[in-house]
Sequence to fold (289 residues):
Amino acid sequence: KQAEKAVHLKKEQSKTKCRKARRRHINLVAEFNRRQRKNIWLETHIWHAKRFHMVKKWGYCLGNSPTEKSYRACYRAMTKHCLLQDLSYYCCLELTGKENELLKQLARICSIDAGLTFEEACCLSGRFEGSLSLYRADRYPEDMLGHVTFIWKPRNGSENRQLWIWVHPALKQDILRELKAIFQCSEPEEIYVPEPVTTSIQEEKQMDVVQSLGKKRKKEDKEGEKAVPVKKIIGDGTRDPLQSYSWVSQTTGIMISDRTMEILRYRLIGPLSHSVLTETLKAASLQTV
Fold:
């Protein structure tokens, strides 16, 4: 029986793919998508996974501490050069509606006695980013929700404005619940179901490759190594993919949208940060129709 069992195990192990087949791009993307079912990866996950100890927090897989003694290098970059930090795991809540209505209701969850508010002139114009502490509606100085940062979209001549509020993933549900309450936003009738990014033909090929472990690559895959399936991110670490992502108020007309993992956020620290941005970002040429 032991001999038969050993032979049976050898046959099962022989079906696994060789390393060259496992490292093919289409197989790697399929495996990465499978591993993101519970914890979402950031766009820089592969870079961090090779250099950091990873931890699973707030529904994400984040780099916690470096595997090398790179503290001096990071300090040198912050003081003399430029250091980039990935903050894409922060949640972005978008508010859209009339400016007067937005400011009227947002004044209930902050106070001028605590410092900056959403009505600050330099922030209201959209030139600067602001930060403040939020409280439950009409409960200041009690029942503090947490610290957030915000930025207004510059005016375009219309009375409707857009406001982006960046919150920590641990505070997202409480702050989102309070925003829906003050703006009287109801749950939408239709639940957001994410559509696959890849086309149907690409999806079928990708599923065939995943299911046929141990088999040779199909001959009808003419693109071969050039077949590049698109990375799929369904939902985010703080929201189930079947939950709604947008809420509208029937009385005030304010719309709240969850833009988490749709807008990437990076922080540049150091005296050369501005030089890096000017060299990286190029102004597009204006085209008149």
Remarks:
- The chain has a mean pLDDT of 78.
- The first helix runs from residue 2 to 14.
- The first strand starts at residue 40 and ends at 41.
